[in-house]
Design brief:
This protein is an all-alpha fold. The protein is about 85% helix and about 0% strand. It contains 18 helices and no strands.
């Protein structure tokens, strides 16, 4: 059984074919955040903390986006396996409408009430003012990001992984160049500081989305859907979509709110500490993107087989992911620990903040195997099988009943050391790992959304 679990060549070939381009795409997107952070870091700790806190608003929005797109990917992958192209298009249109509505709400709130948004994360006036200046421009990226996110999800779920990668590459290159020009004032442009970074973010987001839509239309791929057909979904589509998508949306949004509460605690433990946390998350994401790629490959591979009716092969692939991912996490967690010094030294920080950031990375690297097992089971395996509720209960129960109370108590009431408070955040992963392993091997996560191969709607 061990050889069967770990030694299938087709399994690894499909991971490389699907997972590597997606991982590189996410690496590009994470490097965009890192480049922003490095350049803004040249302006000082207050702008760095301000942009990090303003970014929490878009982080919350992106988790709504991820909820709807991840819910859609359950249908995309299983319908792709069953050959239901019409169903894919209807789900795509429905997911897009929901994401655009979310984008409008976050855009209007961020533009007209930026002080309220910044007050959620910090009470320091200089940080609030800098964050408000950034937010009022960055919100113009939100609609483009909604369209780009669901289009990339559709393409990747139907095994078209190169176009999203190329679009992300163009976005990163343009964002880097525009950051340099607008933040520091090159080629006759004024030095705009954080406002320049926000403008570069908005422009590069529209470049990414424009490339996805234009190239898709030229190639007539799965994302080139006529408007008439795109919004032709009916009540049967709605009734099927929301029971799958809503638990994912609730999972991501309420989990994000829990994360926001944690950030509110961290934001009140000092600007220097929050700057170190911003660096830790930026650097850690460079490693995490590989697991995002693997998780996306898992959704496609497992979901496609379940949609095609090959349940036993879907189960076996799921167990393979559950075994391989923690092993890979041990290696990459070690890499994160070993390279923490050179990466943190890229940022202009005080010695104290630099030391705190490095310690946070050591903690994150050590907990990686547990965290990544939880990630692949909840986001990759359970959702691919059509079970979006169990992961929701695991995620929300653990963050709200374990992490939030521990961090709030030790950070705000007991005033423990910031590093200790940060480490306690990961207590939830121990509990979630035990629950996730039991559910994985039970097989109860397999809940097909198709009615068999080549099922058509309506």
């Amino acid at each position: 059984m061990k050889r069967t679990l770990l030694g299938n060549r087709v399994f690894y070939r499909d991971i490389l074919r699907l997972g590597v381009p997606i991982a590189v795409q996410n690496l590009l997107q994470s490097s965009l955040t890192m480049i922003d952070t490095i350049m803004i870091g040249q302006l000082g700790e207050v702008p760095l903390a301000a942009v990090g806190m303003a970014g929490q608003w878009s982080f919350l929005m992106f988790l709504f986006y991820f909820g709807f797109s991840s819910g859609g990917s359950v249908f995309f992958s299983q319908y792709w396996g069953s050959g239901n192209i019409q169903g894919i298009r209807r789900i795509y249109g429905l997911a897009l409408v929901n994401m655009l509505l979310v984008g409008v709400v976050f855009t209007l709130t961020g533009y007209f009430a930026p002080r309220w948004v910044m007050a959620l994360f910090t009470g320091e006036t200089p940080v609030q003012e800098a964050g408000m200046a950034y937010l009022k421009i960055a919100v113009f990226a939100y609609i483009a990001q909604a369209i780009g996110t669901i289009a990339s999800t559709l393409l990747r779920s139907t095994e078209e992984v190169r176009l999203p990668l190329l679009a992300s590459l163009a976005s990163v290159v343009s964002n880097t160049f525009l950051n340099w020009v607008m933040i520091f004032g090159k080629f006759g442009f004024p030095a705009m500081g954080v406002e320049g970074a926000a403008l570069a973010t908005a422009i590069s987001a529209w470049i990414n989305t424009g490339i996805l839509l234009i190239v898709s239309w030229v190639r007539r791929n799965m994302a080139s859907i006529p408007l008439r057909e795109l919004f032709s979904f009916h009540w049967r589509t709605v009734r099927k979509f929301y029971p799958i998508a809503i638990p994912v949306v609730l999972n991501e949004s309420l989990w994000a709110m829990g994360t926001m509460v944690l950030n509110m605690v961290y934001g009140r433990m000092g600007t220097g500490n929050y700057s170190a946390l911003t660096i830790e998350r930026t650097v850690e994401n460079l490693i995490f993107v590989f697991f995002v790629g693997i998780s996306s490959a898992c959704t496609v591979m497992v979901g496609k087989k379940i949609g095609a009716g090959d349940i036993e092969e879907g189960k076996l692939d799921a167990r393979r992911f559950g075994a391989v991912v923690p092993c890979l996490a041990v290696l990459l967690g070690l890499v994160l620990i070993l390279v923490r010094g050179p990466l943190v030294n890229l940022f202009s920080l005080t010695p104290e903040v630099r030391g705190t950031a490095q310690t946070l990375l050591v903690i994150a690297g050590c907990i990686y195997p547990l965290r990544m097992f939880n990630y692949i089971t909840v986001v990759g395996i359970f959702r691919a099988g059509g079970d979006t509720r169990t992961g929701m209960f695991y995620d929300l129960g653990c963050i709200w009943l374990i992490s939030v109370p521990l961090v709030a108590l030790t950070g705000l009431v007991l005033h423990w050391n910031f590093i200790v408070v940060f480490g306690l955040m990961y207590a939830e992963d121990l509990v979630k790992c035990v629950l996730g392993q039991r559910h994985l091997y039970s097989g109860r996560w397999i809940r097909p959304v198709t009615e068999g191969p080549a099922v058509k709607e309506g």
